[in-house]
Amino acid sequence: MMTPQRSQLHPLEVNPQTGEPFLRLPAPHQNIIITPARDGDQSALMQHLNDPAIYKWLEGPPVPYLPEDANSWVPLVKEQSDAILEYLRKSEEDFPDGPLQFVNDCPVRHLREVKEDGTDVLIGDIGFRRGPFEEVLDKAERKRMQEENACKQAGDPTIQFVVGDWLAASHHGRGIMTAAMGLLIGAWAIPRMGACHVVAHPFAGNIGSIRVFEKNGFGNKGLFDNGKMVRGERKILTLLEWKA
């Protein structure tokens, strides 16, 4: 008897009411799901990204985080997710008998807590992208490695990815981000992106984030100073590295 082929969306589930794909965290965090960004996430983003407990550890978001920032970010990441999902749905037609196709990114990233009444609230974010090689101190060599890495085809095992995250301060200390990071790496980054090399660059002193990565098998390679300036302050970075 033939084994039925998996959907190109595997292992994503699909909400039967909305059609939205998602991943659900394992117990005891099964009330947390990870979905694409949504129109309407802007107000929650502004709430969280204006919290100093969150933004002090982040490089990218402007401070203060204004409506125009959220209104530009949400469509950007939603478009990225939509493009991956469209590619995978087209792959259902092009490869009806498999195999599962590699993609460059993860189409779900926003962590949401599902309430008893079925509504949910945005509580965090995990994003993958091609590695920027922050740990390479020579700027010319870093640029060369970035360009070489960016040109590689999806599924190439030599690609370096970088991952970043944040979680609402109200949900710190519960193991949610550790579980979410482990789920996205194990269920998506490895089988669907072909990831064999993932790094993270949390700021020195961000003990909670460093522990999340260490609990997911990342090695702590120590501190480095590449001259990073964030909001006028020089930042020392930590290199966390996972290899298959």
Structural overview:
The strands form two sheets. The protein has a nine-stranded mixed β-sheet with strand order 1-2-3-4-5-6-7-11-8, with helices on both faces. Strands 9-10 form a two-stranded antiparallel sheet. It has 244 residues and is α+β, with helices and mostly antiparallel strands. α1 packs across α3. The mean pLDDT is 96. The longest helix is centred in the first third of the chain and has 28 residues. The radius of gyration is 18 Å and the shape is globular. The protein is built from six helices and eleven strands.
Report the β-strand fraction as a percent range.
15-25%
Whole-Å distance between the termini? Answer: 34 Å
Biggest sheet features? 9 strands, mixed
Residue share in helices?
25-40%
Shape: globular
Specify the structural class: alpha+beta
Number of beta-strand segments: 11
Order of helices and strands: EEEHHHEEHEHEHEEEE
Question: What is the count of helical runs?
Answer: 6
Mean pLDDT across every amino acid position:
96
Radius of gyration: 18 Å
